[in-house]
Specification:
The chain is of the alpha/beta class and 547 residues long. The protein has three domains: 2-193, 3-Layer(aba) Sandwich (Rossmann fold); 199-338, Rossmann fold (3-Layer(aba) Sandwich); 372-546, Aminopeptidase (3-Layer(aba) Sandwich), CATH 3.40.630.30. It has helices at 2-6, 13-18, 40-52, 94-111, 129-134, 148-155, 165-168, 174-193, 213-216, 225-239, 252-261, 282-293, 307-316, 330-338, 349-370, 374-381, 395-404, 417-425, 475-484, 506-518; strands at residues 27-35, 55-64, 78-82, 116-120, 143-147, 199-202, 243-248, 274-277, 300-304, 321-324, 383-389, 429-437, 442-454, 457-465, 494-497, 527-529, 542-546. Strand 7, helix 11 (252-261) and strand 8 (274-277) form a beta-alpha-beta unit.
Length: 547
């Protein structure tokens, strides 16, 4: 099984090279590789991991160059700097190298808004490796550092082997090459290029524990070291904003008893945002998980020990990702740790808020059903909106919204931090962040709006609202409040919304059609006059602040 080869504790080069995975890419991309050491050998090891991630990558590998001269630059989806830092030791101290390399990054950033990945290590032997290397990307939007030395230390393999330099053109050891290929193919590149997984739906019997609850009883199932590691990894994902769902064919009262009575169970009942315990179809259950979480099926990973159940879910929900749960749990833990789309370059405050905010939606839905009108609903919730303009601190979250949002996304442009920073720097453009909170929870930054002034028109290049904020009757207020406070709004006669139809953004289209209709725009168009917008005020019960 490919999963066993890819996620083995010590990946085998021969087994990796023998894998023949089907080609079914989620996306096709091009990378510029700027290097001063061998990348071709590494690229061969990288391929099976990229295939598993369903990521097709054409690498344009440039010649060996210690100077990082980007004069041959051509457009690409990602820029990779693959650097042997030891080649600079005799010429520079660490601080000088970091300063020089940061200047090279700024030069590259001036040519492109594509993500930049610097893969290298501290060859000077400083004590604080990660902190030293992190200064490289300070103030460089959408640039990231992969500290190869720190990764190899974590994996328990030697990074360097001086014996292979003359043969391979790189001091990186053979054992390090395989684990670094796995990190690059399963974590680092998917984290830059692919939509993230937002929810993990997990089976119970022989997945979270060994044994069958209905046959062995609450006290009869047991947790191996691997099962405990898996449960702990799932809890960590939850703190990072990934939803957990339990999907099990069992009696619900037995499952509830398990979580109450077994103190050694690391996962608790409340850790799951959705619980689907029944004897019905798991494919249907996973569909309901996606619907209740208001996310697309391709943002869900389903884990089960039964190949038949995995096949059934794959047939009933082709977009859902699937992962086989190994009997002892440790294989599942390793596969989950490396699964493409789960790893994040950073975890924001908004990520941590996501799970709790979704739980509060149950109470919000109740209030929506019982309130006499929208005013009462807003007043009982105590809704507060904060609109921020061109704030560099918002870049990571705004880029995340552009990358993750599918249902309420007008143009699906997938702007990254560098793209958004470029808009913020323009006199004729603006990038807006909208924050939302109420008495039940702080939802954090839930919307991004990008606008450009074109003569007497304000053109909305992108508008994304998080699925967590949908259904609160706030879409008009979020957008119109953002427009009214924008410096570019003054003197405009029209607001034009660009729209690109995608597979899942019908909610955005429906909202836009309704807005145009309410403000007297042409049917089926995306343009409205601003005269009526000037009279907009927030609904009763909604407080509004601009920053």
């Amino acid at each position: 099984m490919a999963q066993e080869v890819l996620f083995a504790e010590a990946p085998s080069r021969l087994d990796l090279q023998a894998l023949d995975l089907p080609s079914r890419p989620l996306g096709r991309y091009r990378a510029n590789v700027w290097r001063n050491q061998n990348f071709e050998t590494f690229e061969g090891l990288l391929r099976p991991f990229l295939s598993y991630a369903r990521l097709e990558l054409e690498c344009r590998v440039h010649g060996y160059d210690d100077t990082l001269d980007f004069s041959l630059w051509e457009s690409a989806d990602v820029e990779i700097l693959w650097l042997d830092s030891s080649r600079y030791v005799s010429r520079m101290v660490l601080e000088d190298w970091l300063g020089w390399l940061r200047n090279r990054l700024l030069d590259l950033r001036s040519r492109t808004t594509a993500p930049i990945l610097v893969a290298s290590w501290d060859a000077w032997g400083q004590e604080s490796d990660a902190q030293d290397l992190s200064v490289l990307v300070s103030g460089v939007p959408e640039a990231h550092v992969a500290d190869l030395g720190a990764v190899c230390h974590e994996e328990g393999v030697a990074l360097l082997d001086s014996r292979v330099v003359k043969v391979s053109g790189s001091p990186i050891s053979r054992s390090a090459q395989t684990v670094l290929a796995r990190r690059l193919g399963c974590q680092w590149l998917p984290g830059l290029l692919l939509p993230p997984i937002k929810a993990v739906a997990v089976d119970l019997d022989n997945t979270l524990h060994a044994g069958v609850l209905g046959e062995d009883g609450v006290d009869g199932v047991w947790l191996s070291t691997g099962h405990k590691a898996l449960q702990n990894a799932l809890r960590v994902l939850r703190t990072q904003g990934v939803f957990l769902a339990l999907v099990s064919r069992n009696e619900r009262e037995d499952v509830e008893a398990l979580f109450v009575q077994r103190a050694d169970y690391l996962l608790r009942w409340d850790d799951f945002s959705i619980v689907e315990v029944s004897w019905g179809s798991k494919a249907d259950a996973v569909k309901r998980v996606a619907q209740q979480l208001r996310i697309a099926p391709n943002a869900v990973l389903f884990i089960d020990d039964n190949p038949g159940e995995l096949a059934s879910v794959a047939a009933g929900c082709p977009e859902v990702r699937t992962l086989f749960a190994s009997p002892k749990g440790m294989g599942t833990y390793r596969a989950l740790s490396y699964y493409p789309g789960l790893w994040r370059w950073s975890v924001s405050t908004d990520d941590a808020l996501r799970v709790q905010d979704m739980k509060a939606n149950v109470e919000r839905d109740r209030l929506a059903r019982t309130a006499e009108d929208a005013g009462q609903y807003f007043r009982e919730l105590g809704i507060a909106l904060t609109v921020r303009y061109d704030a560099a601190a918002d870049l990571p979250r705004l880029a995340e919204l552009c990358r993750k949002t599918n249902q309420f996304n007008l143009t699906l442009r997938r702007y990254n931090e560098a793209d958004l920073a470029a808009f913020m720097a323009r006199d004729d453009a603006c990038a807006v962040a909208v924050l939302l909170s109420d008495r039940l929870s702080d939802s954090g930054t839930i919307a991004v709006l990008v606008a450009v002034r074109e003569r007497d028109a304000l053109v909305i290049e992108e508008l994304c609202i998080s699925c967590r904020a949908l259904g609160r009757q706030l879409e008009d207020t979020i957008v119109l409040a953002s427009l009214r406070g924008m410096r570019l709004f003054e003197g405009c006669r029209y607001v034009r919304f660009n729209f690109v139809e995608g597979p899942r953004n019908q909610p955005a289209r429906d909202w836009l059609n309704g807005l145009v209709s309410r403000f007297g725009g042409p049917p089926g168009g995306g343009e409205i006059g601003v005269e009526q917008l000037t009279y907009f005020t927030p609904p009763s019960g909604v407080t509004l602040a601009h920053e």
